[in-house]
Write a structure and sequence with these properties.
By secondary structure, the chain is of the alpha/beta class. It has a domain of 191 residues: Vaccinia Virus protein VP39 (Rossmann fold, 3-Layer(aba) Sandwich), CATH 3.40.50. It contains twelve helices and seven strands. Helix 3 crosses helix 4. The longest helix has 33 residues. The chain binds S-adenosylmethionine. The site of S-adenosylmethionine has 21 residues, from helix 7.
C-alpha cells in the first residue's frame, strides 16, 4: 500500500499541475485572442495582488478539505485522481481548434448561434443561448465532449474538488434512511450535465439508486458513457426540464443540483427549488452547489462582477445578488445552512417531516 504522505504529495502535485496548466492555457489563449480577434475581449482591470493572494489562500483551503474528507473515508482517495485523462489529452487540441469560432461569436456578440437541426420548441427560451460563448450552447455532442475539460481549465483544476463538497452533507443527510434496504434510497442530480457529480456519488455512497436529469441529450449521452460502463451500478438518465421534474412527489431521499442556478432567470430558479422540494420525501435532503455570491464573499466581488463581462452568462449578475437561503425557505425547506469552498457555495436544506 502507498504510504499516506506519498499519496498526499501526489495529490498536491496533481492539483498544482492542473492549476498551472489552467493558468498557462488561459494566458496563452487570451494573448492569441488579442492578436487574432482584437475587440473580442472586454477591457477589465488586472487582478489586484492582494486579491490574487486571497484566491490562492482559498484554493489551498479547498485542497485541504478535499484531502481531509478523503482521509476521513467520506469518499475513496482514488477519487482525487480520477478523470478521463486519455480522453482529455485527445480532446485538448479540439479546444484550441474551437477557439476561433468562440472569438467570432464574442466579437459579433452573437449569443444564439445554435445548431440548425435542433427543435427549439422543446426548450425554454432562456436555454437557447451560447452560455460561456460555448459552441452550439449545450446542444451538440461536440459541446458535450469539450465541456468537462473547459470547466477544469476555467477553475484551474478545482472543478471536481468543488463538486465533491456536496458529498459530506449528502451522506450525513441520508443517514436517517440507513435502515432501508439497498436500492430503496434514491438520489436525483438535477442538471447533471456530463454526470460528474453522479460519478462522485456513485464512488462515495454505494447502494443508492442514482438518477439524473438534464435538458441536453448530448450531455446525457456523455454522462451515460461515464456512468454506465463500469460494473459499479447504473444511473437512470432522463431528458427533462428541471422546472417540471418527471418524478412522483416524495419519491427521492436526496437531491443534488450543481452549477445550474446561475444559468437560470429568477422565475426558473424558484420553480427548480419548488420541484426539488416536491420530489423529496419528508426528511429528505437537498444539497445545492453554485457560484459564491456577493453577500457571502464580498472579498471576491471584483471577480464576480467581471465574470459575466468576460463570459456570456446572461443571468449571473442577477444570481450573485439573489438570496438563495430565503428562496429555499420559501419553497418549504428547513434547517438551511451554507458554506463556501473557493468559488462555490454549498447549501444544505431539509424537507421537514409532516
Ligand atoms: C453549467 S452546466 C452544469 C452541469 C453539471 N451539473 C456540472 O456540475 O458540470 C449547466 C447544466 O444545466 C443544464 N440545464 C440548464 N437549464 C436546465 C433546465 N431548465 N432543466 C434541466 N437542465 C438544465 C444544461 O444542459 C447543463 O448541462
Amino acid at each position: 500500500m502507498t504510504p499516506p504522505n506519498v499519496t498526499k504529495l501526489a495529490y498536491k502535485t496533481l492539483q498544482q499541475g492542473k492549476s498551472l496548466a489552467g493558468l498557462a492555457h488561459k494566458g496563452l489563449s487570451t494573448k492569441l485572442m488579442e492578436i487574432m480577434a482584437p475587440g473580442a475581449m472586454p477591457s477589465t482591470n488586472p487582478i489586484p495582488p492582494d486579491l490574487l493572494l486571497e484566491l490562492k489562500r482559498s484554493m489551498t483551503a479547498l485542497e485541504q478539505v478535499d484531502w481531509l474528507e478523503a482521509e476521513q473515508g467520506l469518499y475513496p482517495k482514488s477519487q482525487l485522481f480520477e478523470a478521463p485523462w486519455i480522453e482529455w489529452a485527445i480532446r485538448y487540441p479540439l479546444i484550441w481548434l474551437d477557439l476561433p469560432s468562440t472569438w467570432r461569436r464574442r466579437q459579433a456578440r452573437r449569443f444564439q448561434d445554435l445548431p440548425k437541426q435542433i427543435d427549439q420548441e422543446i426548450y425554454p427560451n432562456y436555454y437557447l443561448q451560447n452560455f460561456h460563448h460555448q459552441t452550439d450552447g449545450y446542444l451538440s455532442d461536440h459541446s458535450a465532449e469539450l465541456y468537462d475539460l473547459q470547466v477544469e481549465i476555467l477553475f484551474n483544476g478545482t472543478a471536481d474538488s468543488m463538486r465533491r463538497r456536496v458529498l459530506a452533507p449528502l451522506k450525513r443527510g441520508l443517514k436517517k434512511f440507513k435502515s432501508r434496504r439497498p436500492g430503496n434510497i434514491r438520489v436525483l442530480d438535477i442538471a447533471t450535465g456530463t454526470g460528474r457529480t453522479l460519478q462522485q456519488i456513485q464512488g462515495a455512497i454505494p447502494n443508492v439508486e442514482l438518477l439524473g436529469i438534464d435538458l441536453s441529450q448530448s450531455y446525457l449521452r456523455e454522462a451515460t458513457r461515464y456512468l454506465n460502463h463500469k460494473r459499479k451500478g447504473l444511473a437512470q438518465l432522463i431528458r427533462a426540464n428541471a422546472e417540471e421534474l418527471p418524478f412522483a412527489s416524495n419519491s427521492m431521499q436526496g437531491v443534488t443540483c450543481v452549477f445550474l442556478l446561475h444559468e437560470l432567470p429568477r422565475e426558473a430558479r424558484k420553480n427548480v427549488l419548488n420541484e426539488a422540494f416536491r420530489v423529496l420525501e419528508p426528511g429528505g435532503v437537498m444539497i445545492l452547489a453554485d457560484s459564491i455570491q456577493i453577500a457571502d464573499s464580498p472579498q471576491f466581488s471584483y471577480l464576480l462582477e467581471n465574470f459575466p463581462k468576460i463570459f456570456h452568462e446572461p443571468f449571473y449578475r442577477d444570481y450573485i445578488n439573489d438570496d438563495i437561503e430565503s428562496r429555499l425557505m420559501s419553497s418549504g425547506f428547513l434547517g438551511v445552512t451554507a458554506e463556501s469552498h473557493f468559488m462555490t457555495r454549498v447549501w444544505n436544506a431539509t424537507k421537514p417531516l409532516d
